[in-house]
Specification:
By secondary structure, the protein is of the alpha/beta class. It starts with a strand and ends in a 7-residue tail after the last helix. Strands 1, 2, 7, 8, 9, 10 and 16 form a 7-stranded mixed sheet that branches. It is globular, with a radius of gyration of 25 Å. 40% of the residues lie in helices and 17% in strands. Helix 1 crosses helix 15. It folds into 2 domains: 274 residues, 3-Layer(aba) Sandwich (Rossmann fold), CATH 3.40.50; 141 residues, HprK N-terminal domain-like (Udp-n-acetylmuramoylalanyl-d-glutamate--2,6- Diaminopimelate Ligase, Chain: A, domain 1). The longest helix has 19 residues.
Length: 430
């Protein structure tokens, strides 16, 4: 069995995107593929069993037969870290991970091990990504987000902790790269990482559809009252605007896909927004109405993608101010999403900006996009060559061969490359 540990430089870097696409590509090659997320921070209950959300996602999307408590052996509920530091947790968590890993590996050609957060996440319970990768004897690929200085800085920083624990970092993948706008960026990133002995294994282009949160995510992750579900809770939030100006000026700045944040007592803004959304729908259905609606309120922001809905994404009412009954009736009649929150406008806007975007099993279109994006933009055979056989580990979890030491990782890489040259194939590694 060969394995690879997929790490990241932080949250929302695209690790789950790479995992889904890579798993699909490996299975398409006919490989018996396993998945494990040893330590999870965000978890849910499935039939009473707590499991990391990514493990649940992978099991659902690919129909993996392994039990969730094996795919996600350790999760960190609220208060767990304090209990661990206080000595109240007596179970050997590392042993639990090793047992689960041995079950996942049984009968598999390859296993993808997914980390959580940056290299140091989990240190508080002595199970950082670097610790777990060392214990399992798995080489690491680090996923980061686009930029120039930031991704290189973050990757080098994470690389240092893995190296300290004797783990070989075989390369990096950069996500959300707009190569059309910055054509020199791929080469700059490749050279920048090479200066630190890190290979750039591939780039994934930026796709707004993968980054935009949905209305259902807002409802799931932010406390409030759903006043109107609208026509589609899976609608993406493409743009956020704050209703802190006169209605006519606001309408010039919002449009299809916009989520409007406005205090619930701003009747003028709410009414103008409802009217503009109604007109947008009428124009879409009956283009000949343009002359009749010329002097009526209309949105100024045009859709980024003409193929997507021309409606406003919805309205979030801040301050806990409930709209007047007639305004709420008008919102519901228009099919607009409306959510009431107690916090003030600034706090609401900040929370929505930080909204954690996760892929859900029901996001069929998004998952299909991820699979094709990874298959078309990453050299799967090159990444597959980075999967390495499980190495024996010492009692402390450290791989005996110390692959990330000063000479171990470099020597292993030289021997691997020599073997490829002799065999004439970069994909056959037994």
């Amino acid at each position: 069995m060969r394995q690879l540990y997929l790490a990241a430089t932080g949250i929302n870097r695209g690790k789950t995107t790479v995992s889904l696409g890579l798993l699909a590509a490996l299975m398409d090659r006919g490989l018996a593929t396993g998945f494990i997320k040893p330590v999870g921070q965000r978890y849910a209950l499935v039939d009473g069993v707590p499991a990391d959300e990514d493990a649940i996602l992978v099991k659902t999307v690919f129909g993996i037969p392994d039990a969730l408590d094996v795919m996600s052996p350790v999760h960190i509920p609220r208060g767990f870290t304090k209990s661990y530091i206080g000595g109240e947790v007596t179970e050997d968590l590392a042993a639990r991970i090793r047992r689960a890993h041995s079950v996942i590996a049984r009968g598999r050609d390859v296993v993808l091990v997914e980390g959580t957060g940056h290299a140091g996440v989990g240190s508080v319970i002595d199970l950082s990504n670097a610790d777990v990768a060392a214990m399992l004897g798995a080489p690491v690929v680090i996923v980061s987000e686009a930029g120039v200085g930031r991704p290189i800085d973050e990757i080098v920083l994470n690389h240092a902790l893995f190296a300290r624990r004797g783990v070989e970092v075989v390369g990096a993948v950069i996500n959300k790269v707009d190569a059309d706008a910055h054509p020199s960026l791929p080469e700059v990133l490749r050279k920048g990482l090479a200066r630190h002995g890190i290979e750039l294994l591939g780039l994934l282009p930026y796709r707004p559809t993968l980054s935009d949160p949905t209305l259902s995510m807002l409802v799931d992750q932010m406390s409030g009252e759903l006043l109107a579900p609208g026509n589609d809770l899976d609608r993406a939030i493409e743009h956020v605007a704050i209703g802190a100006m006169q209605p006519r000026h606001l309408l010039e700045r919002i449009g299809p896909g916009s989520l409007l944040i406005v205090p619930g007592d701003r009747d003028d803004v709410i009414q103008a927004t409802i009217a503009a959304n109604r007109n947008a729908l009428a124009l879409n259905e009956h283009p000949g109405l343009l002359d009749r609606l010329r002097d009526r309120s209309r949105f100024g922001r045009r859709p980024a993608d003409p193929g997507r809905s021309i409606e406003l994404a919805g309205i979030v009412l801040s301050g806990g101010y409930r709209p007047r009954p007639r305004d709420l009736d008008a919102i519901r009649a228009s099919g607009l999403f409306c959510y009431l929150m107690e916090r003030d406008t600034y706090a609401v806007a900040s929370s929505i900006h930080d909204l954690l975007v996760k892929t859900h099993a029901g996001d069929a279109a998004k998952i299909a996009t991820i699979k094709s994006l990874v298959a078309e933009n990453l050299d799967i055979d090159r990444i597959l060559a980075c999967f390495e056989p499980v190495r024996a580990a010492g009692m402390d979890g450290q791989p005996d061969a110390e692959p990330g030491s000063r000479y171990g990782g470099r020597l292993a890489r030289v021997l691997r490359d020599a073997g490829r040259a002799l065999s004439g194939s970069s994909g056959d590694r037994h």
